[in-house]
Amino acid sequence: MKKLILFVILFAINLSAQKDIEHLFKGIDGCFIMYDFTNDKYFRYNEERCNTRILPASTFKVPNSMIFLEEGIIPDENYVIKWDSVDRGWDKWNMDHDLKSALKYSAVWYYQELAKRADREIYLKYLEQLNYGNKIIGEKIDYFWLDWSLRISAVEQIGFLKRFVKNDLPFSQRNIDIVKKIMIAEETDNYILRGKTGLGDLRDGIYTGWYVGYVETNENVFVFAMNMDASDYENITSQARINLTRTILKELNVL
């Protein structure tokens, strides 16, 4: 009986929490999942979608960066690749990049160039060790994270990010620390927010986007993953996804 009562209480708390952010997803097909390290608890909104695999898009830059560092494809975060003068439609992409700026501005071309210097066996090895989504590369070594060959769910993103936070990955501590450093989006006296966006190309009239990362407070760590669909690009820009996620985190008293 005690177990039943506890289950009912926890279920009610979870439903209440879902209602707390349900209004934030009004008119949006999306999901949100968060893991609270200190209390070993998950918070989920739209659980079915949280378990659905979709393309990782540029959120794959997080493991990809560590792969490039670990394999010696680049020596450190300061490795520069010169812009090839191809206009990619945004001034932040039409410039030289190192790993820091390429991750910050999600410069796909920089990562594609480095991916060509890797090989399929390297990627297959790490996708298996990371247990990353469906672990499928497809035909294009420099595009598989964008063409829906590789797919991962929000739940699986949380699993990867939990290991990232705990330094429980097949990479050296140096390389993990480098990526943690360049992922910092905001740092205050009360918390450090690390995050990475990702957006897929228009597919059947729909854009699919992510914002994943974690918040490190003085007492706790909260790992989060949000993804959503939109037919109108203006509703799914990087800033729109970041703003929605930040609003959720504030609603849950994380920020």
TrEMBL record:
* Catalyzed chemical reaction(s): a beta-lactam + H2O = a substituted beta-amino acid
User: What SUPFAM superfamilies does the record tag this protein with?
Assistant: beta-lactamase/transpeptidase-like (SSF56601)
The entry lists its GO molecular-function terms as: beta-lactamase activity; penicillin binding
Keywords of this protein's UniProt record, alphabetized? Antibiotic resistance, Hydrolase, Signal
What Pfam family is a match for this entry? Transpeptidase
Q: Gene3D superfamilies under this entry?
A: DD-peptidase/beta-lactamase superfamily (3.40.710.10)
This enzyme's EC code(s): 3.5.2.6
Q: Which GO terms describe its cellular component?
A: plasma membrane
Tell me where in this chain the Penicillin-binding protein transpeptidase domain is found: 44-247
According to its UniProt entry, one GO biological process term is: response to antibiotic
Q: Which InterPro entries match?
A: Beta-lactam/transpept (IPR050515), Beta-lactam/transpept-like (IPR012338), PCN-bd_Tpept (IPR001460)
Q: What is the official name of this protein in its record? A: beta-lactamase
Species of origin = hydrocarbon metagenome
